[in-house]
Amino acid sequence: MSDTHLGTDVPSSDPAADPVYAWNDTTRPLSSATLPELFTAQAARTPEAAALVYGETKLTYEQLDAR
Questions:
Q1: DSSP-H helix ranges across 1-67
Q2: How far is CA 13 from the centre of its chain?
Q3: Taking Cα atoms as reference points, which of 28, 62, 30 lies closest to residue 46?
Q4: Between β-strands 57-60 and 50-54, what pairing exists: parallel, antiparallel or unpaired?
Q5: Fewest CB within 10 A of the end CB: N or C in the chain?
Q6: Which helix (H) or strand (E) element contains residue 25?
């Protein structure tokens, strides 16, 4: 009696060989900068842009960075 191939593949134990793994490989490098460092950099790029709006009060990045 011979073995009949049913057309099913045994999944690989290597997750990188899985197409779903490849499709979901959406990682991006993260910055090591802290939140204060990121804020200071944004303030340098756009000092006059609104950074905080609360009711009628508006503060720019420059104003907040100076605090």
A1: 19-23, 35-45, 61-66
A2: 28
A3: 62
A4: antiparallel
A5: N
A6: none
Backbone angles phi, psi at 57, to 5 degrees: -90, 125
Within a domain: 39: yes
Q: Is residue 45 part of a domain?
A: yes
Q: What does the alpha-carbon distance between residue 4 and residue 38 come to, in Å, rounded to a whole number? A: 62
Q: What is the pLDDT of residues 13-61, one digit of tens each?
A: 676 677 777 788 788 888 899 999 999 999 999 999 999 999 999 999 9
Instruction: Give the range of the structural domain holding residue 44, as residue numbers without chain letter.
Output: 33-67
Distance of alpha carbon 14 from alpha carbon 43, whole angstroms = 46
6 belongs to a structural domain: no
Number of structural domains found in the chain: 1
